[in-house]
Amino acid sequence: MYFISMVCAATILKFTTHLPLIIQIFCITFVYENVNLLVRTGIMKFVNNTPFFREIALKRVYGVQVSLLVLTLLLYHLVQSTNAIELLIEVMISAFLMLVINFLISAYNKHIYKIEESKQRYQSLFDHNPDIVFTLDLSGKITSINPMFEKLLGYSPESILDVNLFEHVISIGKQEAIHHIEQALLGNPQQFTMGFLTKEGTSHDMFITCGPTVVNDQIVGVYGIAKDITEQKQAEQIIHRMAYFDEITGLPNRSNFQECMAETLEKTSDNSLAGLMFLDLDKFKHVNDTLGHHTGDLLLVDVSKRIIHSVPEGSIVSRLGGDEFTIIFPKISDTDEVIPVADAILQALAEPFYLHNRELYITTSIGICIYPEHGTDVETLIKNADASMYRAKESGGNTYSVYSKNIQELNEAKHKIHSNLHKAIEREEFYLHFQPKIDLTTDKINGVEALIRWENQELGPMSPVQFIPIAEESSLILPIGEWVLRSACKQNKAWQDAGFPPIVMSVNLSSIQLQNEHLVRTIGQILRETELAPQWLEIEITESMLLQNTQHTMRVLEEIKELGISISIDDFGVGYSSLSYLKHFSFDYLKMDKSFIDNLNMSPKDELIISGIIKLAHSLNMKVIAEGVESSEQLSYLREQGCDGVQGYLISKPLSAEDFIERVWSLKNERSHNI
């Protein structure tokens, strides 16, 4: 280090021999000290990997240099015996020049330090970025990568540098990725997704953000950041599959089918037709009941495969749920084109199925309708295809039925029901049956549900399933619903006046009633007329009703609660309502749908659902009532899970008012035998 400094000083002396001695001294001292400083800087940079050009260190160096220079001048003047004034002037001039030169050197050193610091910051961002960072040249070759490239994809820098990026992009989407890189080279920042092959041959989905690399106002390549979104993509695919595809068969589900049907109608031109088939397996419930739901699920899978193999290419096969399937024919020339397909399906399903060393036979009923002849919208086509399917089922099953005027007979039957409903109240044809509810904490009857029945002179006994939907299609459900409310409250008050213990009377509301502006006023008026205290009345609504005119519905329910009436959600678990409604509104009871109870001992999933519903309801301060309890095994399981109450044939079938008085209290006395 000192040797190098002395050589440099001697070299300067050789070039300054013709200059005054004071200048020679100044030059020698300056060169010696600064060469010494630079050599020290290099050594420290190499050994410690830290910058040496710091302000404090430079100030110390400047002090040493000025001190050495002044000392040199003093020794020189002592030897030459010069006067003090000349010495002082030379010292001041030399010190000033030394400070100016060192100031310039300091400024240069600070600039170098900032460049070094900036480079280290960039390198730190590059090396420690949690995502892949890379640069490409104009030809698409990789010029630099950070360590995450090797960590995520397995390629070492030696194997990937100077290699074209697109050699490792999967073929699907490669052209799109090339297009985005070309746009980045044109100066347009890009964001896109591409699949990248790892060293092991697997594929990773990468979200790329890239832009041009500009040097001296010239684009010299592309820089990019690649985020691994493989897990996110997989999660999205799982969610999409759960939302749009059937879990058992893998076919499109109801939501997917409706979207496909709507899209098909939009694309169908004026000169072409579209077909829809609605399939329902005949007596499929018998398979589930005798062989179990697992076997039933396997049968559904095999059925779906045979249907797919029987339809022409381009057809869309969906499973709506249960044993219902649909088939969309996007483009057909005439109605007769789908008839051979229906025959092929019937023939394919007529062949025996072999499951668990059993030979099973299943048939199906098929309803067919054609767009636009049998309907111009999705809802109408589904309704007509469904009606045609029921026509085929009524004909004995294992056949098909094309929607035609014959189907109008069904509509005529509905019209007869509708006409007779108009006078049913006037003729006093309606009556109520009552089904008790049991509190599992006390094993006592704490409530009863009012169920409407109808017997007409022309039509005979009519199930609510037959006439309630028709009543809901018109305004007839409003007076019928009001009659049910008034009759139920009147009966409950009569029981109390007769000395029976007070119990809660449950009355079902239809969606039409719930949307009626006068509902709350009507309920209040009925309570006043019958003199029934509001705490002995409970209103039941289905969860799907919460989605209809939500703001109005929630306001009406709040007004009903303000009257002191309890509210329960009926058929919970099979509707489409959001759980957020349970959080934002205080319901009193939650009634689990009978379908979960039916499969209790056969489907572990249903058991998990039941347990989850009970825990959810209790966490929201609601009580849970299980509908359709028909066996002691079901009752025991519900007890274990903490269910609050039950209702079903195990307790009692719906009874007339007289039978209820006679049997319900005896049921109370004999509950140890029945519960």
Can you offer a commentary on this structure?
This protein has 675 residues and is an alpha/beta fold. Helices cover 52% and strands 21% of the residues. It contains 25 helices and 21 strands. The strands form 4 sheets. An 8-stranded mixed barrel has the order 13-14-16-17-18-19-20-21, surrounded by 4 helices. Strands 2-1-5-4-3 form a 5-stranded antiparallel beta sheet, sandwiched between helices. α14 crosses α15 and α16 packs parallel to α18. The longest helix has 44 residues.
Secondary structure layout:
Blueprint (H helix, E strand, L loop, with lengths): L1 H14 L5 H28 L6 H26 L3 H44 L4 E6 L4 E4 L1 H7 L3 H4 L13 H12 L4 E8 L5 E13 L2 E11 L1 H15 L9 H14 L5 E10 L1 H8 L1 H18 L5 E6 L2 E9 L6 H12 L2 E3 L2 E3 L2 E9 L6 H17 L4 E4 L5 H17 L5 E10 L4 E13 L3 E3 L1 H10 L3 H21 L6 E5 L2 H5 L3 H12 L6 E6 L7 H13 L3 E7 L7 H5 L4 E4 L1 H5 L5 H16 L3 E5 L4 H9 L4 E3 L9 H13 L1 H4 L1
Parallel strand pairs: 11-12, 14-16, 16-17, 17-18, 18-19, 19-20, 20-21
Antiparallel strand pairs: 1-2, 1-5, 3-4, 4-5, 6-8, 6-11, 7-8, 9-10, 13-14, 13-21, 14-15
Helix pairs in contact: 1-2, 2-3, 3-4, 10-11, 11-12, 14-15, 16-18
